[in-house]
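Hey, I was hoping to borrow your eyes for a little while. I've been puzzling over a protein and I'd love to understand its fold better. The fold is given in discrete form, as structure tokens running alongside the sequence. I'd be grateful if you could look everything over and explain what you see. No rush at all, and the record is pasted right below.
>
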Amino acid sequence: MAATKALGFVLPTGLFIQPSLNRRGGVRVSVFQCSVSSLTSTGTDFPISLFALSYNARLVLEDGSVWSAKSFGASGTRVAELVFNTSLTGYQEILTSPRLRSYAGQFVLMTNPQIGNTGVNPDDEESRQCFLAGLVIRSLSISTSNWRCMITLGDYLAERNIMGIYDLDTRAITRRLRESGSLNGVLSTDGSKTDEELLHMSRSWDIVGLDLISNVSCKSPYEWVEKTNPEWEFNTTSSHHKESYRVIAYDFGIKQNILRRLASYGCEITVVPSTWPAAEALEMNPDGILFSNGPGDPSAVPYAVETVKELLGKVPVYGICMGHQLLGQALGGKTYKMKFGHHGGNHPVCNNRTGHVEISAQNHNYAVDPASLPSGVEVTHVNLNDGSCAGLSFPAMNVMSLQYHPEASPGPHDSDNAFGEFVELMKRFKQST
């Protein structure tokens, strides 16, 4: 028994747990006691008292509601827009998604109740850093269980100065967001600030019209060569593309897995900043151009829309998420802010060309208004939850786009073949010229 290096936890019959019934304020402490029995030959018992953290944080929403919580990660006071995400797995990719660059300026509430079970590892990063303002969860796992885990979620957030709160009613908050729409809010561990002060902060801030792209884009061009790790490769047809194509990827907050999937389909990729001039992009003689995902309001970045306009018709282009919205505006359409957006890995989308339904990973607060698009632009995909536009095509200018994330991470792989469609679009254009 001694060789197991393990501890057995013996919960006594008189296990005592007394959480407060006050869910809306006040100092609450949950206490329970148990004994730990070693699995060594000594049979020694170690009495332990485990004291849960007091409710030392608050989430104050602009509708006036105040939610007491427990803090993990960093401390401080932050203001942002609160959105909910329905993904069951992949919280690390969500934390580092550049749409989590797309989540820049946002608090993310996870509807899955327990988070932190698998810890954090360096292989699942989707960008250089965390861009979200804070993480809101129901239950923080007290242990991690994953062979790749290198650090706990709480320590990971603390190192990156990201706030997290837990032990609050995330179901009630989600219902409120679904009914009222996304709400601005303030996360704070500062006990000296009154609820009224935090409420004023939440009502004085607005994400609409903010250029969030400039803070998350790369500062200079770089080459990307890494493909999807063979251990994780799920689409064996991606390696069948023998001919390579040179792609310029505009970084509006690009996810690394988008780049890995493009590389796996045989693309040679140069990533350029969001402000890269169209003329210089064309001088690099690309076979195609990708407009990536990114955070915020497409109407707040008119310089990006102008760049897209200058590139239309010159080479095949592919827009993802923010790139899709920028293409919609560049083609003459309009975008609008959604009630609470799409955030999760389980959104059904109908591919109008095939009639097939794809389960997709989505993360956006804005959408293209299909009624505003000029003739010739085809709506290729529709979100089946609300009928919103989820994909576009304009054959006359070799344009394709998706509102959601074909690379997923986290999420299903139903739409991965869209990368192959982009390769075929570049192939046909190259043959015609």
Remarks:
- The longest helix spans residues 417-432.
- Confidence is low (pLDDT under 50) at residues 1-51, 99-103.
- The domain at 222-432 is CATH 3.40.50.880 (Rossmann fold).
